[in-house]
Design goal:
- The structure is a single chain.
- By secondary structure, the protein is an alpha/beta fold.
- The protein has three helices and seven strands.
- It has one domain (23-145): DNA polymerase III subunit chi (Rossmann fold, 3-Layer(aba) Sandwich), CATH 3.40.50.
- Strands 3-4-2-5-6-1-7 form a seven-stranded parallel sheet, with helices on both faces.
- The chain is globular, with a radius of gyration of 15 Å.
Length: 149
Amino acid sequence: MSASSIAQPEVLFYLLNSTDPQSFERFCCQLVNKIYQQSRRCDLRFADLHQAQRFDLTLWNWQNTAFIPHALEQAQPAPIQLYPQSIPHPCQDVLINLHPEFYPAFSSYQRTIEILDQSDYLVQKGRQRWKAYQQNDITPLLHKIGFSN
């Protein structure tokens, strides 16, 4: 296989038109559910253990009719894995980076997803990550959610 036929990782940014934490979590759950429904594997990277544990509970309570098999730090085999900070064994399919910092190992994945809301902190950190992807010769795609045309 020649170097030119190796697909570059895809990077998507979702920009939400909200600062509401519940809207952010709901969007994340919907996205994880969609990834699971597509029979894909996904690692979610958080800033710390508390955030990963909180999202673990959020997924358990998200919808009574939509079970999403997941685990915290590979405690159980599951297609969706939640990690605080680093990911020792990447699934190599989809990464959802909910950590405010750029993840240098993003190229281990076919697709990396960044989710931002309208909070100043997340927008600022998102701009830094956008630039870091560009410095890695990746042009991210931006999807605006909840904005009027």
